[in-house]
Amino acid sequence: METLSHCYGKLLNGFALLACAILFLMTVMICADVLLRNVRLVPGVNGLAFANEVSEAALYLITMLTAPWLLRRGQHIRVDIVLRLVPKQVGWIFEWVVDVLGLACCLFIAYYGARAALASFNAGSVSIKTLVTPEWWLLSALPVAFLALSLEMLFRMRRLALGPRAPRDDAVSTG
User: Fold this and answer.
1) First vs last Cα of the chain: how many Å apart?
2) What is the rounded distance in angstroms from the CA atom of residue 18 to the CA atom of residue 16?
3) Which of 6, 18, 44, 150 has minimal Cβ neighbours within 10 Å of its Cβ?
4) Strand partners, 134
5) Would the CA dihedral through 155, 158, 160, 164 be positive or negative?
6) Phi and psi of 128, rounded to 5°?
C-alpha cells in the first residue's frame, strides 16, 4: 500500500507540474496579448482575441490539477479551531467524519461530472466563443480531478487510521 501511495503522490506531483506549465504559458500569452494591443509589432494584429477565453480555461484546469496535490500536502483550506478546542480523541473522530463526508462529496461530483462530460461528448456539444471547442474537453477535467480527490481522501483515511488518535497537524491555523 505504501508503494501505491508513493506512486500516486508522484502522479499528483506530475499534475502540479503540468499546472505550473499551464500557468507559465498563460502568463506568456497574457503578456503577449497586452504587448500586441499596445505596441504595433505585427501589422494588423491588435492583441490575441482568444487570450481571455484561454485564460479562463487555464485557471479552471490549474485548479483541477492542483486540488488533489494540495490536499495531499495538507495545504488545502481547513478550519481547525474546533479541533484544537476539543479533546484529541474527539478531534480524531471529527477528522473521520469530515473525511467520510469529503469522500462522499468527491465521489458525487466525480460521478455527475463524468455524466455531464459523457452527455456533452455524445451530444457533440461545442462551446462557441472566440474559439470553437468541444464542450467535453473542459468538462472532462472535473471528474478526473474529483476522482483523484476521492483517492486522496482514501489515502488520508488510511494515514488517519495508522496515525495517533488526534487531529492532524497539517494546515493548522492555530498554535
Assistant:
1) 33
2) 5
3) 44
4) 126
5) negative
6) -110, 105
Predicted pLDDT of residue 174: 47
Phi, psi of 47 (to 5 degrees): 90, 180
Annotate the chain with DSSP letters as a single string. Answer: -HHHHHHHHHHHHHHHHHHHHHHHHHHHHHHHHHHHHHS--STT--S-TTHHHHHHHHHHHHHHHHHHHHHHHT-S----HHHHHS-HHHHHHHHHHHHHHHHHHHHHHHHHHHHHHHHHHHHT-EEESSSEEEHHHHHTHHHHHHHHHHHHHHHHHHHHHHS-SS---TT----
At residue 132, φ and ψ (nearest 5 deg) are -110, 115
What phi and psi values does residue 170 have, to the nearest 5 degrees? -80, 150
Specify the residue for cell string 492542483. 66
Per-residue pLDDT, 171: 57
Cell of residue 41, nine digits: 509589432
